[in-house]
Design a protein that fits this description.
Blueprint: E1 3-9, H1 13-24, E2 31-37, H2 44-50, E3 57-62, H3 70-80, E4 85-88, E5 94-95, H4 99-109, E6 113-123, E7 129-132, H5 135-138, E8 149-152, H6 153-161, E9 173-176, H7 177-182, H8 194-203, E10 207-219, H9 225-232, H10 235-256, H11 263-287, H12 291-302, H13 310-334
Parallel strand pairs: 1-2, 1-4, 2-3, 6-10
Antiparallel strand pairs: 4-9, 5-10, 6-7, 6-9, 8-10
Helix pairs in contact: 1-2, 6-8, 10-11, 11-12, 11-13
């Protein structure tokens, strides 16, 4: 199977050379590379241009305007891709030389496979490995992820991915291009958690493979997507993104369960999680005293609870509001504590 390796880059000149070399040094050589820069303010574009004539590079595109979301870049890269399989090789990570060889092989053995991924090393900005990302799943099943496994995607979705993103790094994933297109591609509105949604949609269409071998080096640093997300979005934005994810998945699963009964259980769980997030959102607006958001978020939350609970819930919100205004706000002013 031919693989399209997409490198969506933004402001990672420090890591680009190492990233590209780790791809060119793969033991499996049947791939193309698509280089995309989202108007980086550093010298990333210049580095990418130096590789534009490499025989493995099929496209090198430098945006004239920043897209605002890496998932616009994902969709653009996949539109250009010739491969049966896609590897989104994020520009600040590094791959083991056997990454493609070991993750492409399962697709030949299982025709129902739609996504394969590996465990990742945790690596700092200086390239020092400080552990692995297994702790992302230890609270769900500490033993399962110690070994390789294949699983029905809907089963994986129900047990793990419906709770949170247990596939924390795109650089560790290889997936079928056609399946990505069939489920509508990535949602650019989910700027920080769009990968969580697309993994969920893709694996709902077939099987998933996981290897416990660390074939990917997932770098954490001040300019990573995770770090930038924490800096840019407030607590309300965090909740809003999760609600958008839950609402979108509800729409997807509600339609999908009509032809795939196994999706019904996931739909019901997702709907319950959405209701919980909406109630948390209303409480958060009160606690943080986002006055213009209290009524809209409270109205949405009220729609998620049985009518006989409504009076008690309204009473709870009123008490929260009074406590926040009468006690918490003066306390923080007096002691000059940040929100």
């Amino acid at each position: 199977m031919f693989v399209s390796v997409i490198i969506p880059c933004y402001n990672h000149e420090k890591y680009l050379e190492e990233r590209i070399k780790s791809i060119l040094n793969q033991t499996l050589s049947d791939f193309e590379i698509i280089l995309l820069d989202d108007l980086s303010p550093d010298n990333s574009a210049e580095i990418l241009k130096r590789y534009s004539n490499h025989p493995k590079v099929s496209h090198c595109i430098i945006n004239e305007k920043n897209s605002g979301s890496t998932f616009f870049q994902w969709n653009k890269g996949i539109e250009l891709a010739k491969g049966d399989l896609i590897w989104i090789a994020e520009s600040d990570d590094v791959a083991d030389p056997h990454f493609l060889e070991k993750l492409v092989a399962p697709f030949y053995k299982n025709k129902k496979l739609v996504l394969a991924y590996s465990q990742s090393y945790r690596m700092n900005e200086n390239g020092i490995v400080t552990g692995s990302w297994k702790d992302a799943t230890d609270h769900l099943n500490p033993t399962l992820f110690e070994n390789d496994f294949e699983m029905c995607g809907l089963e994986y979705f129900e047990k793990f991915l419906n709770t949170g993103n247990t596939i924390p790094n795109a650089s560790a994933v290889v997936f079928k291009k056609q399946t990505y297109l069939d489920v509508g591609g990535a949602n650019p509105r989910l700027r920080f958690i769009g990968d969580w949604q697309i993994w969920a949609k893709i694996i709902s269409q077939g099987d998933i493979f996981y290897t416990a071998e660390c074939l990917n080096y997932f770098r954490y640093h001040d300019t990573s997507v995770i770090a930038q997300a924490k800096k840019k979005k407030d607590h309300f934005e965090v909740r809003r993104q999760v609600i958008l994810f839950r609402e979108s998945m509800n729409t997807f699963l509600n339609e999908y369960r009509k032809k795939q009964p196994l999706a019904n259980t996931i739909y019901l769980k997702n709907n319950k999680a959405l209701s919980k997030e909406l109630r948390k959102n209303a409480s958060l607006a009160i606690r943080r005293r986002y006055y213009d958001r209290i009524i809209p978020t409270s109205m949405l939350a009220l729609r998620t609870i049985p009518f006989y609970v409504v009076p008690f819930y309204i009473l709870k919100l009123c008490i929260q509001f009074l406590v926040s205004i009468i006690l918490v706000a003066p306390y923080k002013i007096i002691f000059n504590k940040p929100k």
